[in-house]
Amino acid sequence: MLNHLKDRKVHHSGEILNSLIRHFGLTDDDLAEVGKGGRPKFGNEVDWAKVELGQQGLAVKIANKQYQITERGLAKLGINHSQLSTTSLENIELANDLGNDFEKEAELNKALRANIEQLEAGLKVMDGGKERIVPSGKIDITAQDKNGKTVIIELKSGVADRDAVGQIASYLGDVANEAPGIRGILIAHGFSQRAIAAARMISSLELHRYGYRFSFEAMF
Cα(first)–Cα(last) distance of the chain, in Å? Predict the structure, then answer.
């Protein structure tokens, strides 16, 4: 399954299933075989494989029935990663259902501000808890790294496309003269191939994918 995802694109579960059927040369009789629960046996095995890949951090569910390989998955295949970096803000506790992204960017903004050092060690919020207004719009979070460099952070609750890259590039241009070495971080639940391609051309920009860790507390 990882080999099917190695092009870094987002793939639909049906596309993944058909690719595996072709790979294993399965016949109609093979696909008709059902398991104990009455579900197609092969389809059930594929679903469990998706869960296993997610638990190992090798692939991520971008949206309903859509999956993308992670940097760890690429490393597993021996593929060198690009500028795309994967960072899981794993200690942020959410009320969302398993696998869903944040329903609102405001929720992501609030969660990240409370856990900013999970994004990068030594990172500090410097905007007083408010979005900063610049000529191109509103900067979600303005921070400072451990070396005193200004970091512009843009948040997208779902999958970011190339327009999001253009947006944060505009913000970087708005404040470029204020301090040397300014850089940007675009955070989203996933990135389109167009976003990744556009980001490769901006050396001061990093892409980070947020993730989840669910905690459970015994009540009695």
Answer: 41
Token digits of residue 144 = 């400072």
Within a domain: 120: yes
State the Cα–Cα distance between residues 144 and 42, nearest whole angstrom: 50
DSSP secondary structure letters along 51-69: HHHHHTTSEEEEETTEEEE
pLDDT in tens, 119-149: 888 999 999 999 999 999 999 999 999 999 9
Type of residue numbered 211: G
Domain total of the chain: 2
**Among 59, 87, 89, 88, which residue's Cα sits nearest to residue 74?**
59
Q: Per residue in 178-200, pLDDT tens? A: 878 899 999 988 889 899 999 99
Rounded Cα distance between 15 and 66, Å, is 9
The amino acid sitting at 7 is D
Same domain, yes or no: 126 and 64: no
Nearest-angstrom CA–CA distance, 184 and 150:
8
CA gap 52, 54 in Å, rounded: 5
Residue 105: both structure tokens together? 């960017």
Domain range spanning residue 183? Answer: 105-209
Residues 130 and 195 in one domain: yes
